[in-house]
Amino acid sequence: MAIDKNGRKCDFNINKDFPVDIHRSEHYRQGTAFECHWHENFEILYFEQGEALIHCNSRPIHVGPGELIVINSNDLHYGESLSNQLVYYVIEFNLSFLHSNQLDLCQTKYVTPLVNNRILFRNQIDHNDELLSEIRYLIAEYYRQDLGYELAVKAYIYRILVLLLRLYGEKTISETEKERQRRTLDRLNPILEYIEYHYTEQLSLGRLAQMAAMSPHYFCRLFKTLTGKSPTEYINHLRLNKATLLLRETDLTITEIAVAVGFNDSNYFSRLFKKYKQVAPSQLLK
């Protein structure tokens, strides 16, 4: 997954002439499914197999087979696989392709507020047979690509949005609030990207706050509001996920792995690992 300088996901798969991308994602180990990021496109995650913990705007959501997660534009989110086999579909599209040249009630009442991110949906979607049916038809049309599939895909997206609007509409936000949220994300996301590439180094709160041009107190409070974790907790969480991968796939010792992911003390690493992963690192050694 590529991230731009502001921490947005770069949507290289999105066709500008038909801005819809649907793909199947499979993970065969527990741990990070995708890193913390945000994007302007609207996204739906449909889980087919396994369990996961998806964090949306600092709120953790447990999901399993047949469940959905809605990612509004600019929602900060990341995912963890809780299973050794996690399978889900990512349905991503730019809402602006719903616009038409005809200025009618549908445009002014629904499409324009959706495109401008002024209508937000609940992230967690409970099991809804009608909605799941539309999602499955949408995926099938996209993959078959029969004649006229673009029309069918667009029609299903309209139907899905209607169901979301009726059942899971959460709130509307003003242009001022939208802009404030956007500025906040623009300030924080370069820090998230920096942590991703420098997690093996000693990252102090003061250093990160200085990079964000904030006081340490304000930076820490804002960081926890958006991610649900303090900067230290977030960094340790990332390091432990990287360590899990090394434990399972390399022949490195526990001490070597601790150092490789940024811990100077292997005993502290082992205690922290057991605290968060509920298993000793020695039990995961290859």
Task: Please provide a written account of the structure.
This protein has 286 residues and is α+β, with helices and mostly antiparallel strands. The chain has two domains: 20-170, Sandwich (Jelly Rolls); 173-285, Arc Repressor Mutant, subunit A. It is 45% helix and 21% strand. The chain has nine helices and eleven strands. The protein has helices at residues 105-115, 129-144, 149-168, 175-198, 205-211, 216-227, 231-249, 254-260, 266-277; strands at residues 20-27, 31-37, 42-49, 52-56, 59-63, 68-71, 77-81, 86-93, 119-121, 124-125, 169-172. Strands 1-8-3-6-10 form a five-stranded antiparallel sheet, covered by helices on one side. A four-stranded antiparallel sheet has the order 2-7-4-5. A two-stranded antiparallel ribbon has the order 9-11. The chain starts with 19 loop residues before the first strand and ends in a 9-residue tail after the last helix. Residues 1-12 have low confidence and may be disordered. One of its GO terms (molecular function) is sequence-specific DNA binding. It comes from Anaerospora hongkongensis. InterPro entries: AraC-bd, Homeodomain-like_sf, HTH-like, HTH_AraC, HTH_AraC-typ_CS, RmlC-like_jellyroll, Tscrpt_reg_AraC-type_HTH.
The number of helices is 9
Indicate the multimeric state: single chain
Q: Tell me, what's the shape?
A: globular
Using the coordinates shown, work out and report the CATH topology of the largest domain: Jelly Rolls
Order of helices and strands: EEEEEEEEHEEHHEHHHHHH
- From the helix content, strand content and strand pairing, which structural class follows? alpha+beta
Strand order across the largest sheet: 1-8-3-6-10
The radius of gyration over CA amounts to: 21 Å
The end-to-end distance, rounded to whole angstroms, is 27 Å
GO molecular function, one term: sequence-specific DNA binding
Keywords: DNA-binding, Transcription, Transcription regulation
Protein name: AraC-like protein
InterPro entries: AraC-bd (IPR003313), Homeodomain-like_sf (IPR009057), HTH-like (IPR037923), HTH_AraC (IPR018060), HTH_AraC-typ_CS (IPR018062), RmlC-like_jellyroll (IPR014710), Tscrpt_reg_AraC-type_HTH (IPR020449)
